[in-house]
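Hey everyone, long-time lurker, first post.

I ran two proteins through the pipeline my lab uses and got sequence/structure pairs for each. Pasting them in order. The first:
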Amino acid sequence: MSTMHPLYVSLSFGMALLYGWYLKGWRSVCRGLGYGLAVIAIVAAANAFFNGLGLTVLFHVGDHPITAEALCYGLCAGGMLVSVIQWFSCYQEVMTSDKFLSLFGRLAPTTSMMVSMIFRYIPDTIRKAREIQTAQKAMLGNESPGKKQELSQGIRMASILMSWSMESSIETADSMRSRGYGETKRSHYTKQKINRYDVILLCVVGLLIAVNGYWIFARANQFAFYPWMEGVSIPWWIGTLYAILLGIPLLLEGREQLCWLPSRL
């Protein structure tokens, strides 16, 4: 999110696809990639149509010039947006509520509990809405509802979801109170301690973040799209370090697969 340099955007987009492919499979990634490419195309087309800056005119739409600089800016902006969405989708697959509470339960117990509950209620609400929609379709059969009926169904669904959410919140609060939440220091299901491997990995990640952060804010952000594209070129070894930083989650998740790969060949 800190730069729209084409190299950084491309590497982030590619590594997010690889990590998502490992976590969710190629079908889910291809389905999300279709939506992502559509978003990139819409952002690029909108920026090229409404922004006439740039000296390299490709063609005209009426009296409005479509420039290569505006098109490239839109592609990079859309690619950055889709990459962030892809990384957050990977985060959602990896970071469970129990892991979140293990990390921040002692520092901010109330806030971490609230965020964890929000993350749990969002998919539960979506799942409940689909169940309600399926039940409404079953009651109607093959009858195609009109606009008024669709509006009535939407209002009824919202009312049911609000009632269900309030009831579920009351049940959750009663359950937490009966289990002694807030009375004593919170315990954990699993005891996780930081070992020497974790310290080394944190140092490596911190070093990679520092190096890439310097190049992003001091050099990469000097890349200009208007009035023509110019900027400092990023050395290959900086791109390699950035790819390594983005690939660390994939290496951590896939190290078991890599260890067993020779025996499967």
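...and the second, right after it:
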Amino acid sequence: MNKTQLRTTYKAKRREITTEEYSGFNAKIKSNFFKEFPSMDGKTVQSFLPIKERKEVDTWPIISQLRNSRVTITVPKADLELLTLTSYILDDHTQFEENEWGVREPVSGKEVAARKIDMVLLPLLAFDLNGYRVGYGKGFYDRFLSQCRSDALKVGLSFFPPVDQIEDVDQYDRSMDYCITPHEVFRFE
């Protein structure tokens, strides 16, 4: 399938997830994340903030556990005109507002350069066995990842297993290093 078909299919699949399934899937993703990455001490991790109405993976439990160790958490703020992301440190004083797409973003704070980030947690609708992901189609994260260090880990979070191949991957698409699902951790080279 191509990206458009995958977006349609996986948005519908998400809508079908029950409240009980949503809670269980999120708990399993968190467990699998910390089995794969038991210690991130001293690292900087960027996490997306979930749009729960769209049944995105709930990153707050992962963020909370990381914040209890020596991990710096950053969260993105989007420039909807330039289609870029800027990272801000998440702390107890961070205030949020929703942008026009319903995404919670920091109002202000200490900015962190993309090259300082060690791991990026990536939102996605679908992914393939080659480590490519399909998001909502604006390219925010592909642009952002192109600014990160080459050794920064790119980790997708998905409720669903991969498709064989996304047919219309292009030169701007960035592949992931890992994708964590409720049932398995996928590693890509």
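Reply from user beta_strand_b:
Welcome! Quick read of the second one: The chain is about 25% helix and 25% strand. The mean pLDDT is 95.
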